[in-house]
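Case study: EamA domain-containing protein.
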Amino acid sequence: MTALFALATSLLWGLADFGGGLLTRRIPALTVVVVSQSIAVVVLGTVVIATGAWTEWGPQLWFAVAAGLAGPVAMLAFYKALALGPMGVVSPLGSLGVAVPVGVGLMLGERPGLAQFAGIAVAFAGIVLAGGPELRGAPVQRRAVLLTLLAAFGFGGVMALIAEASSGLTGLFLALFVQRVTNVAAGGAALYASVRRGGGALPEGSGTAGGGMGVVRAALPALAFVGLADVAANGTYSVAAQHGPVTVAAVLASVYPVVTALAARLVLKERLRGVQAAGAGLALVGTVLLAT
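Here is what the predicted structure looks like once written out:
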């Protein structure tokens, strides 16, 4: 069950990242975050009311609040690092965040077997290579590296925190709702600050009915998919981490760069570099070792 839910997490996160990447080509990144997560808040709020999950309110939800604060910070740092580039270095470094939940699992006393340790090492190498690291070329700015590491450990922190925020299915709905409300509040504050500094909240919409707002309205189905896929990924990861070793769940859930790369290949016809294809193969081998 752990392997199944963790791999579902990778699929959902990979597709959400792919969709979010496409949307940020037309819409400011913070707007994508705030709108997509706002849609998720509405859906999750309905689920919480329908299932009576609000009755499970308790101190464990502070983990969800912390995850909700860490998420937007990590995402903003990651986008800024990507802007500084090169992306072929930034993207693989972003996968290092898996060290956080793996470390938590080891500190809690988990001791994977030899095959699983081998699977962790092989899958991690595949995850990094799947991002297409640039081993030669322009030097990387120190600021880009620091921002990427901040983002990576922020993403890893979210994985560790959300796994501690609930113990049952209805509690998980409430935890995800609290996390998303915090996401929207933090992202909205950052967007407001950006606008006050002269940044734009809406895309350039010349020639589009309704201007920039028309572009956002037209993208609502895609924004909803990104927000809900991200929520579902957090949910499946929490289930995976609660029903099996966190060390295994975290690594399998971090194979999402492979999914993003394959989605770009299938939809955008982007050609995979040799190092990316090798990374995808290694990630698959590591997945098999971990699943056993």
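For the exam, be able to explain this: The mean pLDDT is 81.
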